Amino acid sequence: EQESEDDIHSSRSSLDRQSHHRANTTMHVCWYRNTSVSMADHSVAVENQLSGYLLRKFKNSNGWQKLWVVFTNFCLFFYKTHQDDYPLASLPLLGYTVSCPVEADGIQKDYVFKLQFKSHVYFFRAESKYTFER
């Protein structure tokens, strides 16, 4: 949890972003979250890399932010556009669960999924059924 949701809006230099990005290695996240990754899971992860636009829900509002998202090596990397060289933020996914929102979440949109690890909850919305299923 080195990068909070609010940090996506921070303006750091490219050099700062590069050094921070290196801290989110799989080994670092496994150690921090006291978990491990099997060789089979690692092999599947290498073969399953995705990228595309997703909408990220702001914590305390009804607003959504459109971000280019790259999923690779058990981590989501967030960019403003597909042309950016460095991510705005990253979210290591080890230990997170993926589910659909429940009524108590108060989200009345299609193609929304929920990522949760302990008290950290994020909502993302795809722009189509195809993207949502991917």
Number of helices: 4
According to DSSP, the number of beta strands is 7
Give the helices and strands as they follow along the chain: HHHEEEEEEEH
- In CATH, the homologous superfamily goes by the name Pleckstrin-homology domain (PH domain)/Phosphotyrosine-binding domain (PTB)
CATH architecture: Roll
Describe the sheet with the most strands. 7 strands, antiparallel
Computed CA radius of gyration, to the nearest angstrom? 15 Å
Report low-confidence residues grouped into runs of 5 or more. 1-22
Strand content: 25-35%
InterPro entries: PH-like_dom_sf (IPR011993), PH_domain (IPR001849), RAC1-GEF (IPR051835)
Pfam families: PH (PF00169)
GO molecular function: guanyl-nucleotide exchange factor activity
Protein name: FARP2 protein
Structure description:
The two termini are about 25 Å apart. The chain has helices at about 15-20, 25-30, 40-45, 130-134; strands at about 50-55, 65-70, 75-80, 90, 95-100, 110-115, 120-125. It has a seven-stranded antiparallel sheet, with no helix packed on it. The chain is built from four helices and seven strands; from the N terminus they run αααβββββββα. The protein has one domain: Pleckstrin-homology domain (PH domain)/Phosphotyrosine-binding domain (PTB) (PH-domain like), CATH 2.30.29.30. With about 130 residues, the protein is of the alpha+beta class. The longest helix has 9 residues, at about 15-20. It is globular, with a radius of gyration of 15 Å.
Question: Secondary-structure map with pairings?
Answer:
Elements: H1 14-22, H2 26-32, H3 39-47, E1 50-57, E2 64-72, E3 75-79, E4 89-92, E5 97-99, E6 112-117, E7 120-125, H4 129-133
Antiparallel strand pairs: 1-2, 1-7, 2-3, 3-4, 5-6, 6-7
